[in-house]
Amino acid sequence: MIKLHSYESSGKDILSFMSMVGIVIMLRRFLISEKGYMGLGPAKALPGDLICVLLGGRVPYILRKISAEFEHEGIIYPCYKLLDDLYVHGLMDGAAMEMIEKGQAKVEKLVLV
Question: How far apart are CA 60 and CA 91, in angstroms?
Answer without folding.
Answer: 7
